[in-house]
């Protein structure tokens, strides 16, 4: 199998935001403990919160408080900022990376952010201008890149068009989300083969959910195409407690184990990472959704 | 990524043996229901029991009874037969495929079957002769092919030597077991690249446990090298209930989902397969260790 496996992979840890946003609420102190533990384990990119309406996402209402309590100059802390108000609030606590979020599916965009894809992009213009003026970089999430719960198949050309627009607007990187975890390597390869013809691999990240147990395999397929940035969540956080059978993000522990086995640098201490997962899942009163974590815990 | 992905894959369902052997005991009737349900889902190769001492493996003590109760002429039913006594008992209930079991690690062989690898092979001579005389085919399992709990790394050349001896003795196929689920694709590729220089791919199967969540990714790596026979267990059966954190075989549901996504033929009805898993895990009073199963259950 020919391969473009990268020498090093950058993990973007999304457990404290994309993960905890889809779990039962935890105390502010538990979030601070989690982020500090992730940083101590060696993670350099941590999505630390979301500046969104607490009416819609009550789990993120304390993001200012969480981020203000951190003192991690060596870590790139990012936060979801869907609008100017959120961007200003994130900037006020020193966030140097914003994240904006749209979809490659019109139906998903309508149901989740009540507008068309085009409108969602237009809405970000204020955030982008604010970011540029304040020397803050912006990451663009595209969800449903491998399939949509409403539309089914998603055309890779639609993903390309959305990704290209986000880059043109000034995003430094696009995180490609398999939001419903429906993809397999065939779709990953089809999508990335198209995207990589137009976008440099250094500007693409994969963000795969593990609903059908395929996330790690899909990540492996992406690594083989040279992708070197992977989003993941410690303990596989994000399995919504209210949706039976829902699985969260791919577990960072399992990704790190894979990278170790492949001889790819990642800079993360697996044991300390697993311990961070045990702490937060204990606060959530659940088991980590990571087999590596379970295996290490049994040792 | 260049690939030798096969057009079709043969699933060898090991849940009723390798799976249930490592679970709490279930009723004979539940085993019969399971195997019939697996066959009804379209599985053509089912490991149905083990003819071993009930002193060591009480969960398999009713294998004769289970297999006698089946009427599945279209299914290849196999059974573990470590010695002549077991082989005769399996033959008495009409088994047409035996399975024998050794390891690629001396330490593991000593701890698990109380002899050297060489001695384990010598012990099978009676079984092989009996099988030949009665027109029964024999499958050879080699465990610890990607690592050993006692020795650590296992030399692929040792695996090759053991596999070659089993083939020479008359086995039609070698099932390569990552018994402790420790491997990643790098080791899979290293091992198979060596083996495939000496053994035709049609004679090799992969049998991966999911202890570290890597099994499906490892299977994908093997498929890319042309391997077309995969062992798996419905609902990921085999997570020993007495060992905290232990994970069982890779779940057949997750493998089938992967194959479907890759456009590889498998002949299995995923919904009926998942239902077979729900039945047996209900009897075991546990949840299926399959994310595909959980996702289907939530629908």
Automatic annotation (TrEMBL), chains A, B:
One of its GO terms (biological process) is ketone body biosynthetic process. GO terms for molecular function: hydroxymethylglutaryl-CoA lyase activity; metal ion binding. It holds the Pfam family HMGL-like. The keyword Metal-binding applies. It comes from the Bacteria. InterPro entries: Aldolase_TIM, HMGL, PYR_CT. Its EC number is 4.1.3.4. PROSITE patterns: PYR_CT. It is an enzyme of class 4 (lyase). SUPFAM superfamilies: Aldolase. This is hydroxymethylglutaryl-CoA lyase. Keywords: Lyase, Metal-binding. Pathway: Metabolic intermediate metabolism; (S)-3-hydroxy-3-methylglutaryl-CoA degradation; acetoacetate from (S)-3-hydroxy-3-methylglutaryl-CoA: step 1/1. Belongs to the HMG-CoA lyase family. Residues 9-274 form the Pyruvate carboxyltransferase domain.
């Amino acid at each position: 199998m020919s391969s473009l496996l990268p020498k090093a992979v950058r993990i973007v840890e999304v457990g404290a935001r994309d993960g905890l946003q889809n779990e039962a609420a935890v105390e502010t102190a538990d979030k601070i403990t989690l982020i500090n533990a992730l940083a101590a384990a060696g993670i350099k990119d941590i999505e630390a919160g979301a500046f969104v309406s607490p009416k819609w996402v009550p789990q993120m209402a304390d993001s200012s408080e969480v981020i203000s309590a951190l003192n991690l100059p060596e870590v790139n802390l990012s936060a979801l900022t869907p609008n100017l108000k959120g961007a200003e609030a994130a900037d006020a606590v020193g966030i140097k990376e914003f994240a904006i979020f749209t979809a490659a599916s019109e139906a998903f965009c309508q149901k989740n952010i009540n507008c068309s894809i085009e409108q969602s992009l237009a809405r970000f213009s204020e955030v982008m201008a604010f970011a540029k003026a304040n020397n803050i970089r912006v990451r663009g999430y595209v969800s449903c890149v491998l399939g949509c719960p409403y539309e089914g198949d998603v055309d890779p050309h639609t993903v390309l068009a959305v990704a290209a627009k986000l880059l043109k607007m000034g995003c430094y990187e696009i995180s490609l989300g398999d939001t419903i975890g429906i993809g397999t390597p065939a779709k990953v390869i089809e999508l990335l083969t198209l995207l990589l013809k137009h976008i440099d691999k250094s500007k693409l990240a994969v963000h795969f959910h593990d609903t059908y147990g395929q996330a790690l395999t899909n990540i492996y397929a992406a690594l083989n195409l040279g992708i070197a940035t992977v989003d993941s969540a410690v303990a596989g956080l994000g399995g919504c407690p209210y949706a039976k059978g829902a699985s969260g993000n791919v577990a960072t522990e399992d990704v790190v184990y894979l990278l170790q086995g492949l001889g790819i640098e990642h800079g993360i201490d697996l044991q300390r990472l697993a311990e961070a997962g045990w702490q937060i899942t204990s606060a959530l009163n659940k088991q980590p959704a990571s087999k590596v974590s379970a295996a290490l815990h049994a040792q």
